[in-house]
Design brief:
Largest sheet of chain B: none
Largest interface: A-B, 59 and 80 residues
Number of strands of chain B: 0
Strand content of chain A: 5-15%
Helix content of chain B: over 70%
Strand content of chain B: under 5%
Structural class of chain A: mainly alpha
Distance between the termini of chain A: 38 Å
CATH architecture of chain B: Orthogonal Bundle
CATH superfamily of the largest domain in chain A: MetI-like
Shape of chain B: globular
CATH topology of chain B: MetI-like fold
Number of domains of chain A: 2
Oligomer: heterodimer
Distance between the termini of chain B: 20 Å
CATH class of chain B: Mainly Alpha
Number of helices of chain A: 12
CATH architecture of the largest domain in chain A: Orthogonal Bundle
Strand order of the largest sheet of chain A: 2-1-6
Number of domains of chain B: 1
Largest sheet of chain A: 3 strands, antiparallel
CATH superfamily of chain B: MetI-like
Radius of gyration of chain A: 27 Å
Radius of gyration of chain B: 24 Å
CATH topology of the largest domain in chain A: MetI-like fold
Order of helices and strands of chain A: HHHEEEEEEHHHHHHHHH
Helix content of chain A: 55-70%
Number of helices of chain B: 13
Amino acid sequence: MRRLAAAALLAAAGILAPLVAPHDPDEIVDVMAARDLRPGSEIHVIARRDGTRFAARSVEVTDDALVYERGDRRETIDRRDLAPGEPERRRFLLGTDGYGRDLLSRILYGARLSIGVTILAVSLGLLIGVAAGAFTGYVGGALDVGLMRLVDALHAIPRIFLFLLVAALFGPSALLVGIVLGVTGWIGIARITRSHVLSLRESGFTAAARALGAGRKRIILNHLLPNCAAPIAVATVLLAADTILTESSLSFIGLGVQPPAASWGSLIAAGRDSVLSAWWVVLFPGLAIVISVLLLHLMAKPFRAPLPFQTGDGSKAVPRQPS
Amino acid sequence: MSLRNFLVARLIAALLLLFGVVTLTFILVHAAPGEPFSAERAAGLSPEAAGRLRAIFGADVPLHVRYLRWLSAVARLDFGVSYAHRRPVTSVLGAALGPTLLLMGSALALAAAAGAAAACAAVALRNRALDRTLDVLAVTAYSTPSFWIGVLLVQALSIGLGWLPASGWRSVDSEGIGPGSFLDAARHLLLPCLTLAVPAAAGIAMHLKESLAASLATPSALAALGRGGSPLRVTILHLRNASASAVTLLGFALPGLVGGSLVVEVLFAWPGMGRVTYEAILARDLPVIMAAVALAAAVTVVGSIAADLGCALADPRVRLGAGGGAQGGEA
């Protein structure tokens, strides 16, 4: 339950990114003065009368001038050259990236994007997978055999290669990532649904429903599917985890979300050459991926997921050492 | 089902599958907007010259003719000429297959060894703290994107400490075959291999631990423990019984691994299939991409047949079936 609450909190932060994010994720004020700032640092955004802006490390207001520190120099600007109002103080909780953009805001907007792609992929996968698995599992026969062959066939195509082919043809985008991952991701859900429908089909309550005159549609929707909800939910959660990982990988190599939009994968790609001087640019988006995927895996764990968590606590099965 | 019948049935299924993949790629490619040599046209190539280019590359005949030509060419393992490299696709991808198989094979071996060692330690040593730590480590590693591990490893070990090369698969000055070039190749291999192996090892460890624990609860293991066998020894002796399901999992995880190796190859400039495909995409080099998808599917199918065989070798109780391979029950 705590895991679910934590996941819901993170998802809410991502979805509500425009409200939660402290700054505009794409705004570049002053690259020279604001880039690669450590987590927790602060800048002052000073607006000139002509509308241009720059950033300073610290400001001191005197009667008719403003003394500010920019880089390693101390400079003075006349009050008359300034736009009215005080310089704006900005704090960057997780630091800034190579263009001086707020990393926390970019991570939050990246989360929003990841959530969007995941919802698209998971709903596509769930829709196709449950429909195909439940129907063919219940009806059986040649249709069932055919579907299983198709599932085996689709499973053998590494989905990243398939995505690359489609990306090369239609141009890479976040939307395409979601669609391809959904259209390729349904097979796991179809397998699970089918295997449970197959066993439930022979159960007493199905026979009873059939004897009472329930039709095929009613039996599948009202009697079989509610009883497969738990395994389907687990498969869905694992599909979501896989989607986040794959989307970030694709964005990392530049074939997913296109700039300037922020994605966790592209954030890491942008900071990969300056890890030694600006570790936070790579560290925090990576942690965001690990934490989200970990939460999803942990959510699936207690429900005896098919892969790779076979049981909850394996150590219980170990016999005690004879004493 | 006998081994021979199993192999024949699986190979037929594999051929049908590859036929499907080849057809699917053909449909996708021809359903997409844009046409070949549009970049050259934009760069100022005359329509006549573009027409000659289209004729040279066989892009000027009706669709069904192209499909039949494509099928018969693929059957002869002729995937045409790469638009970007201007040499046969087979030679472009053939040169890339070796590095990919080397990287994936070594990563698989490393992952299997590390995963098995971790699972044995967790089950046999009966140390609750160690067991918990390994659990947490495994699920975390399994949730970590390999490219992130790769970026951090490169920065720490190559750029920071300067111990290992950051990209490529051999140094420029390394020529021929000898102990020196072998060491050079091994040094280049280490980082990408490690990057690819960490999440895979975590998956193997988690799965193997479950089946090890189950097989240690069997009467044979209890008897061995009762006779005074040390837990570690009994665990290792039961590794073979437990490994069947892990081998199945490996076969099942293979498509993911092939896909994951693509990102790692791009990251480390490893001259394998993944990187060649990636570059082909940037250049819209369709013949190479179409062949790469087919080749990736072929590698996966061969791998899954090998996994089923390995499963039967590890556990003689496993019956080989035609469709679902060695898996019993739900997949």
